[in-house]
Amino acid sequence: MSDATLTHGHDSHEDVDLHHQFEDFEQQCECYIVGMWSFLVTEIMFFGALFLTFTLSRYMYQLDFWKAHEHLNVTMGAINTSVLLFSSWSMVMAVHSNQLRRRIHSIAYLGVTIACAMTFLVIKYFEYSEKFRDKLYPGVGFTHDAHTLHGANLNHAQLFYGLYFGMTGLHAVHIIVGILILSALIRLFVIKAKCVMKDYVPTELVGLYWHFVDLVWIFLFPLFYLMPQPH
Amino acid sequence: MSQTPRQSHSHITPAINYHLTLIALVVLMLLTVWIARFQLPPVLFLSGVAVNNIVAMTIAIIKATCVVMIFMGVKYQTPLVKLWALIGFVGLILMLGIMLDYFSRGPEVKHGWEPYNDGAMPRARPTDDEMKAPMDPRTDNTQVRQPKP
Predict the structure, then answer these.
(1) Quick count: other Cβ atoms within 10 Å of Cβ B76?
(2) What ipTM does the predicted assembly reach?
(3) Residues sharing a CB contact under 8 Å with residue B81, sequence separation 6 or more, in sequence order
(4) What pLDDT digit, counting tens, does each position of A113-149 carry?
(5) For chain B, how many helices (H) and strands (E)?
(6) Which helix (H) or strand (E) holds B148?
(7) How far is it, in rounded angstroms, from Cα A144 to Cα B49?
(8) Are A89 and B22 within 8 A, CB to CB?
């Protein structure tokens, strides 16, 4: 019974954790969400600069980037995209359950989200180790093997892999941070902390962050894995 | 709304919307992978590669809109939140305007102060006369600049 998890008498606004600087609950919610979006705006600009660098480099060295990208595994990328989309869904379902005050459901959905994040990182690990095995990390040890580079110019291929590791790596760091935040949130649910039992906004904010991580991958996937062949 | 009195003024999206959004996102993902297998024909003044890129990015933008509107709930939020969410993407588009600068330049006609480097931005290789010419007096002109072999 989900109703069994409902805790306090919730027939009035009195049990709302309303801080004194806010007029009412709606204003408080709005402030929290606007604050989170302000952070996300900085994140958009942060990743945006990298996307810009990638777009420019790809425009300038179309053929070499296309050749270098041939070495990426589209299947793994597509599986990772699906995993992240699914995790976004489970995250939003956790928020939904929290709104309906179904504590156990929230914990379960957050658990699924973490499991998806872990799966994403495991797949990423296999992808990265494949690249490292082929010496495709930029630097002095970068491979000179034309077969591995698919005939791409050495410098341009290094630029490609520099951006590949930089951008997907930064994204992976966000996933790891997300796992930590999600774990902390689950703990709050487990100990029945007032902030998550009385208010859905903390879960919503974690959700916003998680969806942003998904959003970045939605653009990374076609840009890196699905390049059209220049002709 | 006796079920959720605390969020009595807040919107609670029916879960079915989330399920449908997930299905739409996965279908779009499969669609973009499938389309990328083909070399699309040129349309009007756009080359085939450009058409491929535009299709892939359009699908990505549709997916992103679904995530922002439904999953992030911007669609059901207050105007202030909508504005804030929009600002980030407007800023990104403004930043993309920098590209116009790069695209309009073409190769540099005069050599810069730094040695010629194959890996840098495309620019004309300086002529021998240019290499011998004294540098800008404001900079150190004691160094003899040599093009890379």
Answers:
(1) 15
(2) 0.85
(3) A30, A33, A34, A37, B74
(4) 999 999 999 999 999 999 988 888 888 878 878 788 8
(5) 5, 0
(6) none
(7) 28
(8) yes
The pTM of the full predicted model, rounded to 2 decimals, is 0.81
Q: Which residue in chain B is spatially nearest to A157 when comparing CA positions?
A: B119
Determine contact: B16 vs chain A, CB below 8 A: no
Which tokens go with A183? Answer: 């774990």
The CA distances from residue B133 to A88, B20, B115, B139, B145, in Å, are: 61, 68, 14, 13, 10
Which tens digits make up the pLDDT trace of A171-202? Answer: 999 999 999 999 999 999 999 888 888 888 88
Distance from CA of A52 to the nearest CA of B (A): 7
Q: Is the pLDDT of residue A79 over 90?
A: yes
Q: Is pLDDT of A7 > 70?
A: no
Q: How many CB atoms lie within 10 A of CB A20?
A: 4
Residues 6+ apart with CB under 8 A from B145: B115, B131, B135
A34 CB neighbours in chain B (<8 A) are 80-81, 84
Distance, in Å, from the CA atom of A57 to the CA atom of A54, rounded to the nearest integer, reads 5
* Interface contact A48-B92, CB threshold 8 A: yes
Rounded Cα distance, A137 and A162, in Å = 7
What is the pLDDT at residue A2?
40
CA of B142 to nearest chain A CA: how many angstroms apart?
31
**What's the rounded Cα separation, in Å, for the pair A209 and A217?**
13
